[in-house]
Design a protein that fits this description.
The structure is a single chain. By secondary structure, the protein is mostly helical. It has a domain of 59 residues. Helices cover 82% and strands 0% of the residues.
Amino acid sequence: MESEVQTTYPLVISIVTTVLCCLPLGVVGIVFAAMAMSKKSSGENAVAADYAKKAKLFSYIGIGLGVVSWIVVVAVNALAVGAAAAGAAAGSGGTP
């Protein structure tokens, strides 16, 4: 007897990825999760498990890219604020 294929979690994590992190990879994850649900309902558990695995993979990659992009944005903004503060401090010491 084959084990039950989990198809709800891949769909949920794909939706979260689409909304919060990376739209293109989240949509691909949603498509694979929907295909997994369809195959599971028709009794093709091996194919459903493969699609569910692909949905999770694309979602995790999207989450990773989203986290990395947020880190880059925060770092660039911190550097810009630091440079602006240094420029303002250097410019305020002269004569008017």
